[in-house]
Design a protein that fits this description.
By secondary structure, the protein is α/β, with parallel strands linked by helices. The protein has 2 domains: 172 residues, FAD/NAD(P)-binding domain, CATH 3.50.50.60; 154 residues, 3-Layer(bba) Sandwich (FAD/NAD(P)-binding domain), CATH 3.50.50.60. The chain is 26% helix and 29% strand. The chain is built from 8 helices and 19 strands. The strands form 5 sheets. It has a 7-stranded mixed beta sheet. A 5-stranded parallel beta sheet has the order 5-2-1-9-19, covered by helices on one side. It has a 3-stranded antiparallel beta sheet with strand order 6-7-8. It binds iron/sulfur cluster. Iron/sulfur cluster binds next to strand 12 and helix 5. The site of iron/sulfur cluster (SF4) has 12 residues, from strand 12 and helix 5.
Amino acid sequence: MLNIAIIGAGPAGIEAASILAGKHHITLFEKSEKTLSNIHDKALLFPDFSSAEDLAARLDAKLKNPNIELRLNTPIVKLEKKDNGWLLTDDKQQEYNFPYVLLATGYRVFDAHQKEELGYGIYKGVITSLELEKMIKEEHIVNVNGDKPKQITFLQCVGSRDEKSGNHYCSKVCCVTAVKQAIEIKKMLPDTDVYVFYMDLRMWGQGFEEMYRTAQEEYGVNFVRGRISEAASTYDNRVQIKAEDTLMGLPLNLNTDLLVLMVGMCASDGTKQLSQSAGIDGLYGFAQSKSEHLEDNMTAQEGLFVAGACKRPSSVNDTIQDARAAAVNMMNFIQE
Ligand code: SF4
């Protein structure tokens, strides 16, 4: 039995820990006071509208294994290769040695304050997809005045595919998340008009295209191919939007109760910091795997493995599958 460190108690870290714990002792480091923060932030998951809390409970149950030692409130701030393996240092300068490490430090969402022209943090009616998710979870979707919104407008690709913010990549999950949230709004508030402004919709997964059709045909969600260039506040706390319908080539001005910014996925601070100190930093601060085809859970550094959204934007499902692959990969490597 070997000692393995896993950094990050999100879906990737927990799933990999539960498999590796069949043969090895796992120390699972988590920077915050609880596991699975990014799952607890969600109400329902796409594409099956299953409960995020149920998934969190099932994942947490996997931690009841005597071979898994969970260390909450322990941010690892440095990861260094040494002759005998890896040296981890936490924020209190305590050091830990492990022969093998799995990095599963996940992502953070794009900080919408950077898009000043969209008014996030200035106008109360401009919110992020995460804040809308909280409203959906609490079944309390209201406008700034606390009333039922007449109209809700989504804007895709905020902080992704965007020259200005420096993130040229697609965040992969925000198109389907917007469609999911639009349906959830229409289920709760059938009289609220919902508009989604998109560059192009990337419905790549099984069941996603069907969700998109359902949103249009069953729930009457309006999809507009276009860009919103500017947002401002109206006298009655609504949001005034200047936009362009790029299919029709027409400028649009409209007022909405809530403008929802679909914020993309970025490398988390932990991912950036540890990838750099371990020498596996890749594009946009994400961790770089050895090869995306056959060695996507390995890195250029021996004994250091990667799983989930610390490598690139990834859905919850894909993250869990990737963690399983990482665990098998590590077991094979250790046996060799
Ligand atoms: S998934 Fe959709 S909204 Fe998100 S960055 Fe890609 S195209 Fe834009």
